Amino acid sequence: MKLAIVTGASAGIGLSTAQLFVERGYTVVNFSRRPCPDSRVLSHSVDLADSELDTQLTGVLSELMDAQEKSEVHLIHNASRLLNDSALDTSDESLRDVLQVNLVSINTINRNIIPRMGPRSSILFIGSTLSEKAVPGSFSYVTTKHAQIGAMRALCQDLVDSGIHTAAICPGFTDTEMLRSHVPESAMKEIAQLTTFRRLIKPDEIAETVFFASQNPVVNGSVIHANLGQIER
């Protein structure tokens, strides 16, 4: 069985990625609180914010995968939490909540799934332009997105001889529910002007990049910038 597991495949980049893997012949599973609207994708209700995520995964994985048999699995860490917060006054509790979703849950999922992954598998992180730079008002998101790059690179080293490769795909301004929930509609045209193509990225463009990375181990340990050439100001 060729399997793709996508976190947060209920909307945006996650949904487009799940649909593309289905079209390319994969069994696709969505891990999120909301089901995927595409009935071809198998949805499992998984709360990445739950500190008891290990317990949730035990039952789910026993249904999906044979613990004794390794398969080709592409694990796409797409789900993220974004807050408009500042390094000057973010509470420890708030930071822990974002760390749980954006980093700790990734570690939990990896620990449970890597032993079941065979050669030709991949672990892919959906990062951000903010994985390697910062803007004001996004402290916890920037911090965790930087940490994801470190986790991806560390995995690359720890997976030597496994036949599993890693990469981080870092989208720019993509027309998703997350972007529109944090940027006023009145500012969307201005945001689109910050790429050299003067438009927002489409989720399916990122999905194609993710699929490319999943099939090409030559990108192992790489950060792939997928931002239409973002204009820096």
Describe the 3D structure:
With 233 residues, the protein is α/β, with parallel strands linked by helices. The protein has helices at 12-23, 53-64, 92-113, 139-158, 177-182, 188-192, 203-215, and strands at residues 2-7, 27-32, 42-45, 72-77, 121-126, 164-171, 222-226.
Ends distance: 47 Å
How is the biggest beta sheet arranged? 7 strands, parallel
Mean pLDDT: 94
Which percent range describes the beta-strand content? 15-25%
Overall helicity: 25-40%
- How many runs of DSSP E, i.e. beta strands? 7
Low-confidence segments, ≥5 residues, pLDDT <50? none
Strand order of the largest sheet: 3-2-1-4-5-6-7
Sequence of secondary-structure elements = EHEEHEHEHEHHHE
Which class do the helix and strand fractions yield? alpha/beta
Q: Helical element count? A: 7
Tertiary shape: globular
* Radius of gyration using CA atoms only: 17 Å
Salient structural properties:
single chain; 233 residues; alpha/beta
Could you give the topology of this structure?
Layout: E1 2-7, H1 12-23, E2 27-32, E3 42-45, H2 53-64, E4 72-77, H3 92-113, E5 121-126, H4 139-158, E6 164-171, H5 177-182, H6 188-192, H7 203-215, E7 222-226
TL;DR?
The chain has 233 residues and is α/β, with parallel strands linked by helices. The protein has helices at 12-23, 53-64, 92-113, 139-158, 177-182, 188-192, 203-215; strands at residues 2-7, 27-32, 42-45, 72-77, 121-126, 164-171, 222-226.
